[in-house]
Amino acid sequence: MRTAIAEAWRGPLGLLRRIVRVQPIAQTLVAIAVGGLAGASVTAMTSVAEFAHVWIYGISFDERLSARATVSPLTAALALGLGGLVMGFIEFWRRRRKAAPTVDPIEANALHGGRLSLRDGLVVVAQTLISNGCGASVGLEAGYAQIGAALGSRLGVALRYRRQDLRTLLGCGAAGAIAGAFAAPLTGAFYAFELIVGAYTLANAGPIVAAAVSGALAVRALGGAPYFVGAAPTPPLAVGHYLALVVLGLVAAALGVGAMRAAGLVERLFQASRLPFWARPAAGGLIVAGLAGLTPQVLGAGHGALGLDIPRDLGGLTLAVLIGMKLTACLVSLASGFRGGLFFASLFVGALLGKGFALVAAALLPGFGLDPTACIYAGMGTLGVAIVGGPLTMTFLVLESSRDLGVAGGVLAACIATSLAVRATFGYSFSTWRLHLRGEDIRGAQDIGWLRELTVARLMDRAPEIARAEETLQTFRARYPLASAHAVLLEDAAGRYAGLIWVAEAHALGPEADAEAPICAYARLADTALSPEMGARGAIALFESAQADVLAVTDAASGQILGVLGEAHVARRYADALDRTARGVLDGI
Questions:
Q1: Residue 181: which of 136, 142, 129, 126 has the closest Cα?
Q2: Which of 28, 110, 411, 535 gives a 20 to 30 Å CA spacing to 450?
Q3: Predicted TM-score of the model (pTM)
Q4: Do residues 411 and 351 make contact, with C-beta atoms less than 8 angstroms apart?
Q5: Which of these CATH numbers, 3.40.50.300, 3.10.450.50, 1.10.3080.10, 3.30.559.30, describes 239-446?
Q6: Ranges under pLDDT 50 in the chain
Q7: Which residues contact 329 (CB under 8 A, 6 or more apart)?
Q8: pLDDT, tens only, 80-117
């Protein structure tokens, strides 16, 4: 019976696969479906987190946790301590099962051709909901993007999408999620372009924009955007105001880089402590609970606190303390083991930074007329760029929130300054920095997976010409006449690599050469060989340092010959992969 159902389904599914592989309109329809699913996931996750806040902290359904005047210190300690223990148990369970670290959408598109596990996505969603639900200082955006991207990837795999199309569909899921979360389709689309796919092309523009619109409409139909950002209108900006916002962008870059470097330090402090790994989230939760006793604004993503603080008159010292406490709570939450994003937290802290900058500007230049609301928007965008990345993403978020092209232009200038400053002094966003701390060296979502797959093991010739190192020069010349082979590898009596010799060189040896001498006496590069796991870039570097056009591939432990590789072949394949990546049409190598 099951076989009959599978056969009946294979026909329609196979037809659908063929259609979506060749019809851009069909791919756009699939993208719209993915965006809608992502938007529905955003609404479901938000509802669960808000219910947790209501149930644990006793707030009303229309109230935000971080907007509370006070919270019970005992409730916060119990919620964050127990939530931390649950997170520790999940990590303990994963380590017992020897589960690999979960892959995020940026890593999936950079290294895995758009393949992202739906099961891992659900794990991240659960961890994010537990973390945010108990009050840890993290947002739900990481979970939103993860489940949206995972849904897109899973559907793309089912439809057997090509590599580049699969990467685009993964971006569609993330675009729909972020667009729905902020009621901002352009923000969601450029979040995908800049951060998830790593490129804007005519091929991916249609599906990603369609998915972003679909996600925003789905969230609106199901109950409204949870993270809508708004503020008062702003007056027109003068030229001097643009320059002031650029200065604010540089300040935000310094704060963002400092926060990201501090994240690694705090994580090392937790690792150096005597606490077992499963107890660290609970310890971090108790620290956050202590900060929440001073102000609940450190709890959760900070959406309620942002809405509370934007219209209030806050002094410079108060703003500085709130910025320090919120950043500390965020870094402690993430470093100890809670799971979540810093997207909205960076917007909240950036808004506080913008208010503080406006106060300083008003004190130093009383007649300058820099509008505080413009500074708030610029602070949100620039710190978002410094920590999350994506200058156009943050600019469109400000545009869709303020509906003011004038202030968006000033924010764009400030965001570009921030991006350039962070790139020059640091080079990572928070997501890629955490991957760097884990041992990865990717700087974004650009597809370098193909380049990493170009290993020596994949490129080498597994049937090289091999001669015995002890055979004589005369015998070697007889076995390998001119033009019969380019280079021959030598192995000793124990089967280990003993060097290589070029056939033309062997025949070019003058009459003074001893024809009865072992051929190994004329061998070269006996101590230089490639390893099979070496990448193409490493192989090219070794060819250059050895000044050779052919090298042996050997097993590092045994010295056994595994194959041979030519420099021209590596360079050709490497250049071809780079060209295909640049054109965005990776169909296979």
A1: 142
A2: 28
A3: 0.80
A4: no
A5: 1.10.3080.10
A6: 1, 5, 7-9, 585-589
A7: 137, 287, 288, 291, 292, 298, 299
A8: 999 999 999 999 998 888 888 888 888 887 777 788 98
